[in-house]
Amino acid sequence: MFPVRRTLRGFFRRPDANRRHWLLMIPIVLPLVPAIYNRTEPALLGLPFFYWCQLGFAFLASVVIAYVHLKAR
Q1: How many CB atoms lie within 10 A of CB 24?
Q2: How far apart are the C-alpha atoms of 4 and 13, rounded to whole Å?
Q3: Phi and psi (nearest 5°) for 44?
Q4: How many CA atoms lie within 13 A of 51 on its CB side?
Q5: What is the pLDDT of residue 29?
Q6: Are the C-beta atoms of residues 24 and 68 closer than 8 Å to each other?
Q7: In a structure prediction context, what are the per-residue pLDDT tens digits for the chain, which is 73 residues long?
Q8: Contact 49, 39 (CB under 8 A)
Q9: Could you give phi then psi for residue 72, rounded to 5 degrees?
Q10: Are 68 and 23 in contact (CB under 8 A)?
Q11: What pLDDT shows up at residue 40?
């Protein structure tokens, strides 16, 4: 068997490191910007925008996390 030759770039890089992991910053940073959701209109089914926007952020976070997880496998 031949020994596995590693380059310095591959040696110091973590095996799970990937640019897709930066997508995980979206669900972290987006809810931290109140200018996006600090209003009551438009209402959806009687719920103010703030509430259904927060629910949308939770859905977005689950989609992004699932995508990164499936691509990292």
Answers
A1: 15
A2: 16
A3: -125, 115
A4: 6
A5: 94
A6: yes
A7: 556 555 555 556 666 667 888 899 999 999 999 998 888 889 888 889 999 999 999 999 999 999 999 988 7
A8: yes
A9: -85, -15
A10: yes
A11: 84
DSSP 44: B
pTM of the model: 0.72
Q: Which pLDDT score is estimated for 73?
A: 77
Q: Which residue has the tokens 């209402």?
A: 43
- For residue 6, give the amino acid letter: R
Q: What is the pLDDT of residue 5?
A: 58
Provide DSSP, the chain.
-PPPP--HHHHHS-TT--GGGGGGHHHHHGGG-TTTT----S-BTTB-HHHHHHHHHHHHHHHHHHHHHHHH-
Residue 5 DSSP symbol: P
Joined together, the tokens standing for residue 71 give: 């691509």
Structure token digits, residue 25: 């910053």
d(Cα 23, Cα 67) in Å, to the nearest integer?
A: 9
Neighbours of 61 (CB within 10 A): 16
